[in-house]
Specification:
Helix content is 23%, strand content 28%. The protein is α/β, with parallel strands linked by helices and 315 residues long. It has two domains: 186 residues, FAD/NAD(P)-binding domain, CATH 3.50.50.60; 119 residues, FAD/NAD(P)-binding domain (3-Layer(bba) Sandwich), CATH 3.50.50.60. Strands 1, 2, 5, 6, 7, 8, 19 and 20 form an eight-stranded mixed beta sheet that branches. The chain is elongated and about 65 Å long. The structure holds NADPH dihydro-nicotinamide-adenine-dinucleotide phosphate.
Length: 315
């Protein structure tokens, strides 16, 4: 166990976690960020970010995260680049309250914090169809910026109808021969600007009212079975790559006694407070609505200010 007691332990290192760290360390609070083995969150998997204020020409996702981390480090934030294992906020025997200081575990080691900010984000949601899981990395992907290069001159599909699906399709079209967006509904959910960008691209086609029922291939993807959910007509497509862009699942499994909403996101009580006094939340792990880098950063700031006030009240 690390015997040091931090004022704040921030779990997660996306825009929410890193912004929180910038604020807490600038407020002179001893801060540890449990950053994860793959630190930086979802923006590490993206290319150009055009809607983060302050960058008139856009910025690459990894560059933005590296800049945020450097900024947090400049003020003295400590980092451990290890995966977070558990955060047990169950009441300790007799008191009815979570044990304090809070204890969180990463890479087999316990860390102690007077307060906690949960900023663990959300992970890719997969289709959960036959042939998918074993072919992740062998033709099945959720990250076009990471994997599109491997689909040079190949046929691909993107599943989903939101902004992520449009973005995946646009990125893929820079490499692939063809990109077919397969959407289960009739009217895309994506913002108009993203739809327009995708529709303008001659390589991108759309199939509506259709789901993928099976991913085919032995060693790698060779095709998919699809079904029209209006006519029930089933058919096969010969393709080399499946990009899944159907949303995310909040990373909350590792917490005990943190109240969640019906979709599994951390439930917010009174600004960024959770049901546990002294445990705060920020970013995609609680926000299923906006899910933007800039809103996550804003929530990170809010959680840091709340933690700072709460710590002051404890003195
Ligand atoms: P969304 O939740 O917006 O969209 C998910 C899509 O996947 C929906 O079209 C949904 O269908 C479909 N879907 C969900 N589950 C399944 C399933 N099991 N099988 C088939 N299809 C399924 O998620 P996104 O990741 O696209 O976007 C999340 C947030 O991030 C949004 O707020 C978005 O605006 C933002 N974003 C912004 C970007 C940008 O501005 N550049 C880029 C990427 C994301 P249905 O519509 O029927 O529910």
């Amino acid at each position: 166990m690390d015997s040091k007691i931090y004022d704040v332990i921030i779990i997660g290192s996306g825009p929410a976690g890193l912004t929180a760290a910038i604020y807490t360390t600038r407020a002179n609070l001893k801060t540890l960020v449990v950053a994860g083995g793959k630190w930086g969150g979802q923006l590490m998997l993206t290319t150009a970010v055009d809607n983060y204020p302050g960058f008139p020409d856009g910025i690459q996702g990894p560059d933005l995260m590296t800049a945020m981390r450097k900024q947090a480090e400049r003020f003295g934030t400590e980092f451990i680049d290890e995966d977070f294992e558990t955060g047990d906020f169950s009441p300790s025997a007799g008191s009815g309250q979570a044990q304090k200081p809070f204890r969180v575990k990463a890479a087999g080691k316990d860390y102690l914090g007077k307060s906690i900010i949960i900023a663990t984000g959300a992970d890719t949601k997969w289709l959960d169809v036959s042939g998918e899981k074993e072919k992740i990395g062998k033709g099945v992907s959720s990250c076009a910026p990471c994997d599109a290069f491997f689909f040079k001159n190949k046929k691909t599909i993107v599943v989903g109808g939101g902004d992520s699906a449009m973005e995946e399709a646009i990125v893929l079209a820079n490499f692939a021969d063809s990109v077919t967006v397969i959407y289960r509904g009739e009217t895309l959910r994506a913002s108009q600007i993203m739809q327009d960008k995708a529709r303008k691209n001659p390589k991108i086609k759309f199939i509506f009212n259709t789901i993928v029922t099976k991913i085919l291939g032995e060693e790698k993807v060779t095709g998919v079975e699809i079904k029209n959910n209006k006519t029930n007509e089933a058919s096969k497509m010969d393709i080399d790559g499946v990009f899944v862009a159907i949303g995310h699942i909040p990373n909350t499994k590792i917490f005990k006694n943190i109240e969640l909403d019906e979709k599994g996101y951390v439930k917010v009580h009174d600004y960024t407070r959770t049901n546990i006094d002294g445990v705060f939340v920020a970013g995609d792990v609680h926000d299923s609505h906006y899910r933007q880098a800039v809103t996550a950063a804003g929530f990170g700031c809010a959680a840091a200010l709340e933690a700072e006030r709460w710590l002051r009240d404890q003195e």
